[in-house]
Recover the amino acids of this structure.
């Protein structure tokens, strides 16, 4: 997979791309990530990329031309263009799976008051990571990229993906490690029994219990 990100703040991605699983996925060529500065695509004086909103109001709005130029240059037949915006569709694990099958993602990050509305004409999906407003689309784009890259073949052990949270609309089961007792709290006996069926039943029951407790809304979802 190739991911091109368009941003006004390319340095925000330095740590994200150079640590842990994402770093390894890049080194092992499971994914190529290119971070592009939107200012590199403007033809306006002083590298201008935004301007005041027509009709008045606070903040600045990203202009069409730098974004259209960037996407014209980066886009191919295999691309899907994603815009990060708090008014987009809510990003969920199911969408992470869907996007993980694309060859090329172009992710557009806004800042300030957002984008000139006409930019949406060249966008395939608008995504929000949740019902809150951040200072820009950079952190949301990292959330989306992280969740997709870890699903790519060979990036992490596939077994870890099977029971993790949100698969089957259930949260993940709880895990324990050594020591057996810590500050008076013991590991559930069944996990030490070596009885695989009982362990599986315990874990399934825990997934249902935790989901009822923390995310009852997930149990009501039929299909989205
Ligand atoms: N930009 C600012 N807030 C955002 C959000 N919640 N999701 C996606 N992009 C955003």
């Amino acid at each position: 997979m190739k991911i091109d990100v368009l941003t006004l703040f390319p340095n925000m991605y330095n740590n994200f791309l150079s640590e842990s699983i994402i770093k390894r996925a890049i080194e092992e060529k499971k994914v190529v990530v290119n971070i592009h500065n939107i200012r590199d695509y403007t033809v306006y004086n002083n590298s201008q990329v935004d301007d005041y909103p027509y009709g008045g109001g606070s903040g600045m709005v990203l202009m069409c031309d730098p974004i259209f130029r960037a996407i014209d240059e980066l886009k191919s037949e295999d691309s899907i263009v994603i815009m990060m915006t708090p008014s987009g569709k809510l990003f969920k694990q199911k969408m992470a799976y869907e996007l993980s099958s694309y060859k090329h993602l172009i992710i557009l990050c806004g800042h300030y008051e957002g984008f000139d509305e006409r930019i949406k004409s060249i966008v395939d999906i608008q995504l929000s990571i949740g019902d809150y407003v951040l200072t820009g689309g950079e952190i949301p784009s990292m959330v989306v990229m992280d969740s997709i890259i870890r699903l790519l073949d060979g990036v992490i052990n596939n077994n870890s993906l099977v029971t993790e949270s949100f698969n089957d609309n259930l949260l993940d089961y709880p895990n324990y490690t050594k020591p057996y007792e810590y500050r008076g709290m013991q590991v559930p006996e069944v996990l030490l029994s070596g009885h695989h069926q009982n362990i599986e039943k315990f874990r399934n029951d825990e997934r249902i219990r935790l989901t009822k407790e923390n995310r009852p809304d997930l149990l009501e979802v039929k299909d989205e």
